[in-house]
Structure to design on (214 residues):
C-alpha cells in the first residue's frame, strides 16, 4: 500500500482586490472568474454574472478571465467587468 | 486626434510593445489603427493576425466597431468562420470583419484595448 501526499495548497486568506475601481473583499488567493463576480455583486457593484471580466496588468495586455478560469489574486490585483458584446 | 483617442492608442501600444502600430488620423479627431501582429491560435491555422479598427472622435463614449483581421483566416477543421464574421476590406486590405457590438457600453470602465482583447478572445473561442 502506498500513500500519496497531496501538494500543499496555499492557505486561504482574505484579499482586497479592485473591480471596476472599487475594493472587493474575497477569500483567495486562488479564485475563479465567477467567484470574483459573485463577490463583487455581493458587495454592491452594479454588474451581473454574464459580464465579461478582464484582469488588468499595468503596461501589459489585459487577460480575459472566464467564469471557470482560476487566477491567483493579491492586494494589487485589479479587474474590469463590462457588459459583453453581441453579434450584429 | 483628440487627447482621448491618443491615450487609447498609447495604451494599446504599451500593451503590445513588440507589435507595429500603424495609425492614420481620420481628419475628424479620430484615427484608424492597425496592430500587427497579435496572437491568435485557437481553432485557426494561423498563429497570429493583425487587427484593425477605427477609433472615432467620439471615443470613449462611442463603441469601437467593427474590427478587422487577416482576410485569409482559416480554421484547422476547414469549417466556416461562423456568425459575427464576414468578408470585407479595411485600409486597402482584404479582411474578415468581426461584428461585435457593445450595445451596453460603459465608457467609464471599457477601453479600446479591452474591446480589442474581448474581440480577439471571442474569435479564439469560436
Amino acid at each position: 500500500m502506498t500513500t500519496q501526499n497531496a501538494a500543499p495548497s496555499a492557505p486561504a486568506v482574505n484579499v482586497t482586490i479592485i473591480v471596476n475601481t472599487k475594493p472587493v473583499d474575497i477569500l483567495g488567493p486562488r479564485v475563479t472568474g465567477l467567484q470574483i463576480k459573485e463577490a463583487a455583486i455581493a458587495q454592491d457593484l452594479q454588474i451581473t454574472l454574464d459580464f465579461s471580466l478582464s484582469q488588468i496588468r499595468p503596461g501589459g495586455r489585459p487577460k480575459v478571465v472566464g467564469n471557470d478560469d482560476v487566477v491567483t489574486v493579491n492586494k494589487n490585483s485589479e479587474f474590469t467587468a463590462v457588459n459583453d458584446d453581441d453579434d450584429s | 486626434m483628440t487627447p482621448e483617442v491618443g491615450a487609447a492608442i498609447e495604451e494599446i501600444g504599451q500593451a503590445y510593445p513588440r507589435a507595429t502600430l500603424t495609425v492614420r488620423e481620420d481628419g475628424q479627431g479620430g484615427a484608424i489603427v492597425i496592430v500587427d501582429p497579435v496572437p491568435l491560435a485557437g481553432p485557426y491555422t494561423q498563429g497570429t493576425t493583425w487587427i484593425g479598427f477605427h477609433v472615432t472622435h467620439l471615443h470613449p463614449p462611442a463603441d469601437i466597431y467593427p474590427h478587422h483581421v487577416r482576410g485569409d483566416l482559416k480554421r484547422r477543421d476547414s469549417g466556416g468562420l461562423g456568425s459575427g464574421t464576414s468578408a470585407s476590406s479595411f485600409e486597402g486590405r482584404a479582411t474578415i470583419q468581426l461584428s461585435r457590438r457593445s450595445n451596453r457600453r460603459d465608457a467609464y470602465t471599457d477601453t479600446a484595448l479591452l474591446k480589442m482583447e474581448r474581440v480577439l478572445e471571442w474569435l479564439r473561442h469560436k
User: Anything to note?
Assistant: The beta strands of chain B are 20-25, 31-39, 48-55, 67-70, 85-90, 93-98, 100-101. Residues 23 and 33 of chain B are 5 Å apart (CA to CA). Residues 3-15 of chain B form the longest helix (13 residues).
